[in-house]
Design brief:
This protein is an alpha+beta fold. It has seven helices and six strands. The protein has two domains: 116 residues, Ubiquitin Conjugating Enzyme (Roll); 95 residues. Helix 2 packs antiparallel against helix 3. The strands form two sheets. Strands 1-2-3-4 form a four-stranded antiparallel beta sheet. It has a two-stranded antiparallel ribbon with strand order 5-6. The radius of gyration is 39 Å and the shape is rod-shaped. The termini are far apart. This is RWD domain-containing protein 1. Belongs to the RWDD1/GIR2 family. Protects DRG2 from proteolytic degradation.
């Protein structure tokens, strides 16, 4: 017949010897105690820690001990849940044998994994921030990237806006009794409006923008170029 009390007393003595600084007896009947488990130091000497509480059942080790997370530091809720699942699994696998040392060792390894995960997550966050900063800098110094399609869409809108400006100007001049455009400000606009599409002075073309319409490459339409085009339009008003 198994002497459960003897097995439990022998294990308690062994645990007190193995964990002299983290083993604390809470009660003798039923035998209850805590063991504090701390991970290895991670980045910036950061650690995670948990204090496990165990209580022997009457027929331990043929029955699993009662266990709980007595306290913890720097652990997320999902980490606590994972530790409890790990304890349940290990307790079932070691049923019939004294198992507290095995359970504590499993938790120790889990805490070390958590510290490594924290380090990896912080490194990924750092890389992501650096990438975002680099992309923002590129956008600032290289202008707004455009494809052929959205450049043509921009050009169509610009042509429409310019046409409305010309119509408004002509209407105002007609109302003022003018029969034709005149003056130093009207001539450049009229000359531009009658130039053939292939003229180098017409609205932006592939040659002017540097866009190869036979290529699938994406080019950059500089904000300086857009500003210059609008400056010409404003000059014509």
């Amino acid at each position: 017949m198994t002497d459960y009390g003897e097995e439990q007393r022998n294990e308690l003595e062994a645990l007190e010897s193995i964990y002299p600084d983290s083993f604390t007896v809470l009660s003798e009947s039923p035998p209850s105690f805590t063991i504090t488990v701390t991970s290895e130091a991670g980045e910036n000497d950061e650690t995670v820690q948990t204090t496990l509480k165990f209580t022997y059942s009457e027929k331990y080790p043929d029955e699993t001990p009662l266990y709980e997370i007595f306290s913890q530091e720097n652990l997320e809720d999902n980490d606590v849940s994972d530790i409890l699942k790990l304890l349940a699994l290990q307790a079932e696998e070691n049923l019939g044998m004294v198992m507290i040392f095995t359970l504590v060792t499993a938790v120790q390894e889990k805490l070390n994994e958590i510290v490594d995960q924290i380090k990896t997550r912080r490194e990924e966050e750092k890389k992501q921030k650096e990438k975002e900063a680099e992309e923002a800098e590129k956008k600032l110094f290289h202008g707004t990237p455009v494809t052929i399609e959205n450049f043509l869409s921009w050009k169509a809108k610009f042509d429409a806006e310019l046409l409305e400006i010309k119509k408004k100007r002509m209407k105002e001049e007609e109302q003022a009794g003018k029969n034709k455009l005149s003056g130093v400000y009207g001539a450049p606009c009229l000359a531009w409006s009658v130039l053939p599409p292939h003229s180098p002075h017409h609205l932006p073309t592939a040659e002017m923008t540097g866009i190869d319409f036979h290529s699938n490459h994406t080019y950059t339409l500089h904000t300086q170029f857009i500003a210059a085009v609008y400056a010409i339009a404003l000059f014509c008003i």
